[in-house]
Amino acid sequence: MEAYQVIPVFGPVNDVAIFLLFAFSFLLILGLGLSKLQTLVPSNWYLAIEAAHTTVFTMVRTYVGTAYGYWLPFLFTLFFGLFFSNIFGLLPYSTTPTTHIIITFNLSLFLLVTAIANGFRRYGYAMMGVFIPSGTPLPLLPMLVAIEMIAYVTRILALGIRISVNMITGHTLVKVIGGFIWEGFEGGTSILVLILPMVLLTVFLVMEVMIAYLQAYIYTFICMITIKDFL
Fold first, then answer.
1. Lowest mean pLDDT among 26-35, 146-155, 160-169
2. Which of 84, 95, 195, 226 lies 20 to 30 angstroms, CA to CA, from 220?
3. 34 HSE (CA, 13 A, CB side)
4. pLDDT at 34
C-alpha cells in the first residue's frame, strides 16, 4: 500500500524518519507549549501529561527496582515515542514508523546490546549466570546455556516483529474501510447506507488506539524485564 512506501524528502532523510523524530519529540513539544500557557488551575491537557508521567514512573519503579531513576528517562521516551508513532499513522496522508520492521528490529537490537553491555560493566563474566537455570547438572550446562541464550535473544528481537505486524494489520484495516467509505461518498452513495460502515470505522479507530497503547506498553514492559535481568 502507498501508506507504507518510503518517500524521500531531501538527501538521506525520508518521511518515515521525519514522522519518527516528530513522534519521539511530540510529548516534549506538547509539554513545553502547555507550560507556557499554564495558569493557576492546570488544564486538562497538562493533567493528562502529568498522569501519563505518573503511570510510567510507577511502572518503571515497580519492575526495574532501585535503579529506576537511571532508566526512567529512556523508558519514558521509549513508551511515548512508540505510542505516538503508532497513533500518528492513523492520520490521513501520514506514515507509521513502527510498521517498518527495520526500525523496530534495530530498536530491539539496541536494547539487547545495551542490556548486555550494562551487565558486563557491572558483573563481568558472572553475568552469564542469567542464562544458567537453577539446579542445572554440570553435563547439561553447555547445552542449556546455548538454549537459554537463543531463547533470550529471540524474545527480545521478536518485539520488533510483534509491534510491526500488529500496526500493519490494524492500520491497513482502518485505512481500507475509510477508503471504501470515501469512494462510496464520492460515488453518490446515500449517507444512510454509509452509516453502518462509518460506525464500524469508529469502533475500529477506538480499538486501534487501544492496541497502539497496548503494543507500546508491552514493548516497554519487556524492555524493563530485560533491563532488570542485568541489574
1. 26-35
2. 95
3. 17
4. 66
Kind and range of the H or E run holding 56? helix 44-64
Rounded Cα distance, 32 and 26, in Å: 10
How far is 156 from 109, CA to CA, in rounded Å? Answer: 8
Grid cell of 41 as nine digits: 488551575
- Residues 7, 15 contacting (CB under 8 angstroms): yes
What is the H or E stretch that residue 138 is in? none
- Domain, as residue range, for 88: 2-229
- The burial of 150, by beta-carbon neighbours within 10 Å (0-12 exposed, 13-18 middle, 19 or more buried), is given as exposed
Q: What sign results for the dihedral spanned by CA atoms 59, 65, 66, 67?
A: negative
Instruction: Give the span between the Cα atoms of 231 and 123, in whole angstroms.
Output: 9
The C-alpha angle 58, 61, 64, rounded to 5 degrees, equals 135
pLDDT at position 12 is: 76
pLDDT confidence of 107, banded at 50, 70, 90? Answer: confident
Report the distance separating Cα 78 and Cα 26, nearest Å. 12
Residue at 42: amino acid letter: P
Which pTM was predicted?
0.80
Q: Which three cell numbers stand for residue 86?
A: 503508532
Highest mean pLDDT among 43-57, 70-84, 121-135: 70-84
Report how many domains make up the chain: 1
